[in-house]
Amino acid sequence: MGDIFEDDTQESSVDTSDAKQVGFLPNILIQILKFVAMGVAAILFVFTVVIITLKILNVSSQSQTPPEISPQYQAAPPILNWYEIGEIRARTADEAQNTLLAVVYLGYDVDDTAVQTELNERKPYIRDLIRRFFSSKTADELRPQNESILKAELMAKINDVLTNGMIKEIVFDTFNVVEF
């Protein structure tokens, strides 16, 4: 009987040495599954952080609206006929007078022959009106930063004189203020 007990203990020791298999899966497979699970968890974490970061950045960029573009710059400028007034020389209204040299063109609608006829008939008067306009300004008022304001004021003065139509635009081919 003693042998039977010894055999039983030997069998039980064999069973314990074969304990590498836990349940249905071996230990190495469990270790691989652990690493795969950690990798998937890391990928999900990085993916979540990226999505949250992009949402935060998109919210802040949506609050910035682009500036509105003026209708003048959205479309191509209209095609106009140009009437050359010629070179205008005028003295500024400063104490230390400067001289303005400008070549002025007046733009009007292509089909408007009445304006062209009137500009031809009133050219000396319009040249004088432009010269007096520039003579009433100081050198500071005739700076390039004020050019659009000057054009608007001058166009209003010329259009007040015209009876058969209106000019649409003024262009300065040359515009120089020179100290003498």
Description of the structure:
The protein is α+β, with helices and mostly antiparallel strands. Helix content is 52%, strand content 22%. It has six helices and five strands. It has helices at residues 2-17, 27-62, 71-74, 113-121, 123-135, 147-161, and strands at residues 21-22, 25-26, 80-91, 98-109, 169-179. Strands 3-4-5 form a three-stranded antiparallel sheet. Strands 1-2 form a two-stranded antiparallel sheet. Helix 5 (123-135) runs antiparallel to helix 6 (147-161). This is Flagellar protein FliL. The chain crosses the membrane at residues 28-54. Pfam families: FliL. It is found in: Cell membrane. Keywords: Cell membrane, Cell projection, Chemotaxis, Cilium, Flagellar rotation, Flagellum, Membrane, Transmembrane, Transmembrane helix.
How would the blueprint of this fold be written?
Elements: H1 2-17, E1 21-22, E2 25-26, H2 27-62, H3 71-74, E3 80-91, E4 98-109, H4 113-121, H5 123-135, H6 147-161, E5 169-179
Helix pairs in contact: 5-6
Family: Belongs to the FliL family.
Organism: Rarispira pelagica
Membrane topology: Single-pass membrane protein
Structural features:
22% strand; elongated; three-stranded antiparallel beta sheet; two-stranded antiparallel sheet; alpha+beta; 180 residues; cell projection
Short description:
The protein is an alpha+beta fold. It is built from 6 helices and 5 strands, in the order αββααββαααβ. 52% of the residues lie in helices and 22% in strands.
Which structural category fits the helices and strands?
A: alpha+beta
Strand order of the largest sheet: 3-4-5
Shape: elongated
Question: What characterizes the major β-sheet?
Answer: 3 strands, antiparallel
Low-confidence stretches: 7-19
Oligomer category: single chain
Helix count, per DSSP? Answer: 6
- Whole-Å distance between the termini? 136 Å
State Rg.
45 Å
DSSP E strands, number = 5
Strand content: 15-25%
